[in-house]
Amino acid sequence: MKLKSILFAWLIAMLLLGCQAFGSHTYKGALFDPPMPLSDFQLMDAHQKPVKLSDFKDDLVLVYFGYTFCPDACPLTLLNVRDALKDLPDREHVHVLFISVDHERDTPEVMTRYVNAFDSSFIGITDNISATQTVLTSFGAMAQKEEVKGSAASYLVSHTTRLYLVNGKRELLLTYPFQFATEDLRSDLTYLLQN
Amino acid sequence: MSQKHQLIALLFALALVAAQCGSSAMPSQPPQKGITITNTTARLSGANGAIFLDLLNNSDQDDALIKAETDVATTEIHETTIDADQVMHMQPIPKADLPKGQTVNFKSGGKHIMLIGVKEGVVPGNKVKLTLTFEHAAPMSLEVTIGDGPTGHDGGEHKMDGEHGMDMPKK
Predict the structure, then answer these.
(1) Closest residue of A to B168, CA-based?
(2) Which residue among A102, A173, B55, B56 has its CA within the 20 to 30 Å range from the CA of A46?
(3) Which homologous superfamily does the CATH classification assign to the domain defined by A34-194?
(4) Residue A115 belongs to what H/E stretch?
(5) pLDDT of residue B20
(6) Cβ–Cβ of B87/A160 closer than 8 Å?
(7) How far apart are CA B142 and CA B30, in angstroms?
(8) Can you give the pTM of this predicted structure?
(9) What is the CATH number of domain B31-147?
């Protein structure tokens, strides 16, 4: 009787393990369920060429709103993204958009140098604030310019630090918080690229 | 305890002390009173940069970091906070309190020493002189090595090398 119970428990455990191994992927990022459809948008990149979300048809797009003046979340996030993409199979089907929320300081030249230092495939976007604001709102993100007295910075920009993952159907699928684990993003990307 | 045993015990104790010194992160610096600076890292970000470090106040009174200076940029003490909506706010603070007996971490998503308008020519690998001024303790100067990060000028453009990684602040 005792042996039967043990065998039964073992069987259940194996079944559960099997489900975990062969079942659906558990997303590490925060999931939009159902995925949130996004309107197409067009913004100017650092080479003064228009970039549309629909340009990346069927591919995955990682979107981050930030600015080059930021010494903290922005470089940290871009480094994490760079590391997550390193040697990723089908890497060419993932595009990274770094959308500036500080077009005054982020001139095309500044933006080009900045993103190239991380990965030359990253796309730096720097357009006027009203065009950028529309895109920010559609992602549920925000950016707010704030004057700072007594600082050489003159002003700073508070901004959402989430990284957004857009699927091949132009839907917002996942977001990752500030200081997300590189492996988490890599795991989700690997799954999505294979399915 | 016989003299022989005492000698063995003494040698054993000395060996323990020697081993401890050998495994210490800073063997040349015995525990000291006052402020101790550790885990210093720095990175550039465009024309700016940030220095991260840990400050241990091992004195008998509360202290505060009231000024940070470098020879390569305008230097301020800044603090970032992340709110419930994952929005980052950054602002300069007039001082960073250093309660006695405690270590204050300057780290990503918290306090940092902000470098604004880093001089042209400063690139990762350079050493920067940092001088910290405290409310009570005597000023301290140290050299900080700039880790990988995007520079804000053509001459110093630096391609970050994933193999070597970046001199990252600890989380």
Answers:
(1) A76
(2) A173
(3) Glutaredoxin (3.40.30.10)
(4) helix A108-118
(5) 47
(6) yes
(7) 17
(8) 0.79
(9) 2.60.40.1890
